[in-house]
Each structure stands twice: as C-alpha cells, then as structure tokens.
Design goal:
Length: 207
C-alpha cells in the first residue's frame, strides 16, 4: 500500500504546518499542465489527494459533530491529512502498513484490533486491499469517512456500496474543495475544474 493522501509538499511535513489554499492548488494544477503534466507531478510527489486548507477545514467540520472518541486513519501514507486534522483538534491515531514518524505500522485489520476505533477515515485506500471490508465488518466502528476516486469506472470499492447495515451519504460541502491526482481543467491549463476525488460518510444503522 502506497501513500494515500499524498506526501507533504516541501516545508509542510510537521503537525499543524501550513497547507496550500484551494486557489493555490488550482494554480499548481494549471502550472503543471503547462509543463510535464499534473498526474506525472502528483506521481513524483506521491500525491493522491492534495489536502488543501479549505478541504481539511470542511472535513473537520463534518467530523467534529460526530463526537467520535477514538478516531483512526487507516492507510495514512505520509500522514499529511491526519496531522492536519489533529492540528484542528481531532485526535486521530494514524496507521499505515509502511509506518512512519508518528504513524503506527499497521494494516487496516491490525489497526482495528489494536485501537478499537469508533470512526475510521480512509483516503484513496487501494480498492483491492480489503481494508473497507474489514472496517465495515468491525462492530465497534460507527462511522467510516471514505475519500475515493470517482469518475468513469470508479466509485471506490464495491464493498462500500454493498455493505448491509450502513447508510452512506456524499459530502458536497467537502468535495467543492477537493483536488486530487485524477482532476483536470476543462481547457488543459484553464477552465472548469473537473473533480475526481469525493468524500462519503457511512454511518452504521441503528439496530
């Protein structure tokens, strides 16, 4: 499993470090499209989802009212998103099979067993790794916030949409600020921003 929400751009690795704004991110997208291309730049930087300030703020605004006591990020990659949410007062435990500074070296199943979270966040988790199935099958998990790739042929893992006992809803208030490696501008380096990353909140139905 590789990094999921992206490596930190230079100077943004620390907890609470400044993130780019949405406007700055679109400027970078346009600049890279005039050069070697946006996707090659994201691949070189290890970025799947670029955590811009407004996007992280919107995620935090969705997560806070849930009142989760034990939030966990599975597949945290370089930990940029988890650190940004921690800086906004959400006490995420970060886990990833590769580990890292402040990131426990655990896959999804092991992270669930060790930390017993009530909320799990994933961002571009590999759809064929079985992580979503483990999360949704865990009876202690009440909420799963999944950021997935959308677009032709993509909507995250089929497991997300076939899980019994869960209700999912899109988060347009988050997605309006989304910038991912699969995005593009309608006129190559200008025009409409076509988004391909989307957030969904899954809530376990009352029994």
């Amino acid at each position: 499993m590789g990094p999921q929400q992206g490596a930190a751009p230079p100077g943004e690795a620390g907890e609470g470090a400044a993130l780019p704004s949405y406007e700055e991110a679109l400027g970078r997208l346009a600049e890279e499209e005039r050069g070697g291309g946006w996707l090659p730049w994201c691949e070189a930087e290890g970025i799947f989802q670029l955590p811009v300030r407004e996007w992280v703020d919107a995620l935090a605004a969705v997560l806070r009212p849930l009142g989760a006591a034990r939030p966990l990020e599975a597949g945290a990659g370089a930990g940029v998103l988890g650190r940004a949410l921690r800086a906004r007062g959400l006490p995420f435990v970060m886990t990833d099979p590769q580990g890292g500074e402040g990131i426990a070296p655990l896959g999804a199943s092991a992270a669930l067993a060790r930390h017993r979270p009530d909320l799990v966040l994933t961002c571009w988790l590999p759809f064929d790794a079985g992580g979503e199935a483990a999360i949704l099958a865990d009876r202690g998990v009440r909420w799963h916030l999944a950021v997935v790739q959308t677009g032709p042929g993509f909507a995250g893992s089929e497991t997300l949409w076939r899980a019994k006992g869960w209700e999912g809803r899109p988060l347009p208030e988050v997605d309006r600020w989304s910038v991912s490696r699969a995005d593009f501008l309608s006129e190559v380096d200008r025009g409409e921003h076509v988004r391909r990353g989307a957030a969904f909140l899954f809530t376990r139905e009352a029994e």
